Amino acid sequence: MNKLVESADAAVADVRDGATLLVGGFGLCGNPENLIAAIHRKGVKDLTIVSNNCGTTEQGLGVLLQARQVRKMVSSYVGENKEFERQFLSGELEVELVPQGTLAERLRAGGAGIPGFYTATGVGTQVAEGKEVRTFDGREYLLERAIVGDFALVKAWKADAWGNLVFRKTARNFNPMMCGAGKVCVVEAEELVPVGGLDPDRIHVPSIYVKRLVQGRGYVKPIERRTVRPRGG
User: Fold this and answer.
1) Domains along the chain?
2) Is 22 left (phi over 0), alpha (psi -120 to 50) or beta?
3) Whole-prediction pTM value?
4) Which of 33, 112, 185, 233 could make an S-S bridge to 152, C-beta 3.0–4.6 Å?
5) DSSP 104-125
6) Tens digit of each residue's pLDDT (9 = 90 or more) over 94-115
């Protein structure tokens, strides 16, 4: 039951070229910083990455993009990364843009064993190209396929050695859906607590979804755009 491994590098040692990685986080909030760095050090190539976005040019998943380790991105928002823009416009990077709610549901469906679902989001737009359209109660819906990845890379706030997870506030974002949709779920946690140290009613993801767990270290927790109100007076 103890799922702790000695390092982030050991946790991703079997990630191979061409793998599909589901990476939690929203912008730079809730990013698995240690695991992304370990993937960078490993140097695997031709990755397909499913994540809400690709971080910034210098941070988050942008590190893998700069190193030319990414072949395809499946994302909702990509506006903060200039290198992403350059690679996309030059044809170096394959991109699948997915509405944010649809992306979350495709991941949730993958974790639940549901192969597809219908949604009205994207009907009549480029999102609908090549997809089955059906009418229910007089309204058109698209068939969207579930997403399942080879690995899910996730950051939790607290975890026990069994892999029960708690996320902190908005850093929860896409991370729980990633846990279910990855064939191998790898988690880094800011704080490890003894088994039994988490209130069962507060656990966001139960241990059954988690394959490996590592103690996270040295978090930077960067902010994409720091915005503050002007001082009064």
Assistant:
1) 8-215 (3.40.1080.10)
2) beta
3) 0.94
4) 185
5) HHHHHHHHHT--EEEESTTTTS
6) 999 999 999 999 999 999 999 9
